[in-house]
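During the second year of the project, the team shifted from modelling isolated chains to modelling whole assemblies. The rationale, set out in the original proposal, was that interfaces cannot be judged from single-chain predictions alone. As a representative example for this report, we include one of the complexes processed in the last quarter. Its constituent sequences, exactly as entered into the pipeline, are reproduced here:
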Amino acid sequence: MTNSWTDIRNTDLVIIMGGNAAEAHPCGFKWVTEAKANRGAKLIVVDPRFTRSAAVADYYAPIRQGSDIAFLNGVINYCIANDKVQWDYVKAFTNASYIVKEGFAYKDGLFTGYDEEKRDYNRSTWDYEIGPDGYAVVDDTLQHPRCVWNLLKAHVAQYTPELVERITGTPKDKFLKVASMISECSSKTKTMTSMYALGWTQHSKGSQNIRTMAMLQLILGNIGVRGGGMNALRGHSNIQGLTDVGLMSNMIPGYLTLPTEREPDFNAYMSTRGFKPLRPNQMSYWQNYKKFFVSFQKAMWGDAATAENNWAFDYLPKLDVPAYDILRAFELMKQGKMNVYVCQGFNPMQAFPNRGKLAEALAKLKLLVVMDPLQTETARFWENHGVYNPADTAKIQTEVIQLPTTCFAEDEGSLVNSGRWIQWHWPAGSPPGEARTDAAIMSGIHLRMKELYRKEGGAFPDPILNLTWTYKDPHEPTAVELTKELNGSVLKDVLDPNDPTKKVLEAGKQVATFGVLRDDGSTAAGCWIYSGSYTEAGNMMARRDNSDPDATGAYLKWSFAWPANRRILYNRASCDIDGKPWDPTRKLIEWDGSKWTGYDVPDIAPTAKPQDVGPFIMNPEGVSRLFARGMMREGPFPVHYEPFESPVANLIAPKIRGNPVARVFKDDFAQFADTASKEFPYAATSYRLTEHFHYWTKNNHVNAVLQPEFFVEISEELAKEKSIKNAGWVRVWSKRGSVFAKAYVTKRIRPLIVDGKPVHIVGIPIHWGFVGAAKKGFPANVLTPFVGDANIETPEFKAFLVNIEPSTGPVA
Amino acid sequence: MNMELSRRQFLKTAGAGVAGTTLGAMGFGAIEEAYASTIKPFRLVDTTEVRNTCTYCSVACGILIFAKGNLAKGEKADITHIEGDSDHPTNRGTLCPKGAALLDIVKSETRLQYPMIRRAGSDKFERISWDAALDKIARAFKDDRDANFIARNKDGVTVNRWTTTGFLAASATTNETAWCTYKTVRSLGMLVFDNQARV
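Output from the structure prediction step:
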């Protein structure tokens, strides 16, 4: 989230598209209700299903899953055509005026530089013209034919209300009503917030779904303001934190990145991370990259990271592929290229697509280790449960070690909520049986590895032997010890260059902010964006002062928000070019003539002059991007692409199947249903129910009673066509697997008319499996396709094809 | 002054096991007595209250966990009740159908109790000690790493990577667990490393 849950109270219009907050985030949705009741805010829901969010909406429009970009490009086109643009914002705070290189073009669904063989682009033309002064060339009059604004205008012109209806199935009048309501928020005193979740991420073009709405929000001037923003409603209690701390193939904590093998040494690595400003006076905050990187290396390897060895640069592995994400991991496993796999509190057999493939892959491992508070299907993949989990147990040679861990109620530490608040919690109960904390288990593994390498030697032991592990009890570091490392501390005194009798930083002290981190080895910080969370003043994350002066929703003294306790990102953009709030009733910060002050921590240097320094300080431009340069793999502007399994061909580019740059493994292509397949004619989507949380709550008696049994939702029309009775059994199958479910025939789902033909939707809740307190059932992922988003590899769970027929139910 | 007396302060003053009928003896008036009679003294007196965060979605509702026994004092603590934290700015005491049933996930019959091993081809899990389990994991890691570690790629560039063992991290563990995990995994040169944010 750029904003916070409590900030939603400040909005005028909520759009829920790509999510279902009323059911999946009920207590956060309360702030929508608050805005409606107290400000007269309106709620729009755009979704294939008439969800419980839709049930309390002021306006609902149906949409075919996987067509959001067509819809949103249509809204952008509507806003431009009807002059519903926050012009002062767009001109000052976006790259609308930047001139794009000659040679950049778009035609028939593709941009310049496509290589069909590689399913990738040469992106060299996707950038600005650079002038003789070394800065990007701009045309403030927006007259230049190749300025971003004119290219954007031309790019979205195709997405007329008529075309939007033909692609999305949203009736034209409903689309126009939504577009009109949204466009009103181009006013300086009206704000829209976008609340989205996995309904947008779980597509082969998920990142572009989100980007399209972000562009719309910029055009409306809704980023950085109270009641606005792009608000990702994250699904799990610490998904945000796990991402911040970089537990991903290619990440270093705080959104730094691992080197690739094309960056053979430290200089080559740093050369692509210089972030030279692209316009005069801009902060381009990533210019501090080296300070954060060196401080991270010092946190990891202490004295073994020196200037002479480039801060132990070679201790980091170098990537040969963009990332070893989970899809790639299971592909490698299936090919027999992996031997050992550890699942820590994660049940991939349920949570990942094409369960048949996952089970086949797991059976090829030598050792599977599962650390979890609960029984999981993954740990028991070798058990034969008939149709629910057909397994040839005796033939599966994988050894499985299952380790019991503590749960939230027995563990201490911090979690990051969707709004980036890092909140501390304390343990309340004793763990069951012999369960241990994850920290104790990881320590057990690390200390044993250290010992084995010390005794036996072996492959490159240095990063293991030199890993900093100076905890009081090395077998179980405390949460406070670990979090102090994340915050960072001073390793060597730093003296004031003007007065060497004074210390600027004192060895042994916690750093107060990432602003003091250094690239000379005198500071350490595990995760620079968390600096300030545990300082000499104590544990800032444990703060519990819930005062909120003037009821802005900021709650600055409650916990700690990264970065720097800032509650609304880009908040400098809440003011005009002179530093005055666009909407005085929604003041956040303002320029008082010499500095920025207000309700939030300014997202800019406190004395940065408003006319000089742009609000988007992380970008070398200082402004936000309507044109993404080469940063998105599909292109700098969003294009409508169909899901890999689609009931219709792509109307704007019939030859293109799915996302043209998404990675697809060879065997998986063979397991996709054809476009407009007669064999698999129905458009399926998967989702959560309010009574369940993924595959956890089926272990919970209460939730298992509330929603005991697997079902699928279909329209009355489809039920009639297929002679399916409400509460009767059906079989649903895709090209990858087959499930049995009870049918729920409902008015909440209706067929959509897509390019003149009806498309039926099959809704598939995700929550069942073969362990737990609920009835045995099937997870939706027996059916889903093994392909991910082109930029970040989130699987395409939200749009795929199935068939359905009445059935007598499973024979166990 | 009486008006400002919180439930907790009141009970502290009154002491454990207080009964409504004894209130008069402490000098409190009828109003306090009536108020006290609405309080369930059992939970506030006999249990320890601990502040925590709901383990499910990222709304991160504040919760209060009540336990018999005080873990902070080194006692064995048995969780008896969980409710929303009314001081929390986001949820203001409310919980959803999942959060309201948190006690049953803590106490789930399918909570794991002991380290277990399923041997190759076997149809059952068997008990194994922690030491034996961790030794086995470390040995498997070491053998696989030594056999498959790539120090240099074919162009002679130092790459120091290990891709035949992988680690999938969680979504509900703390930042501190995440950091401890990151240090352990990354220091091994492991690249097949991901977490639940992927979905």
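The radius of gyration of chain A is 27 Å. Chain A touches chain B through 163 residues (CB under 8 Å).
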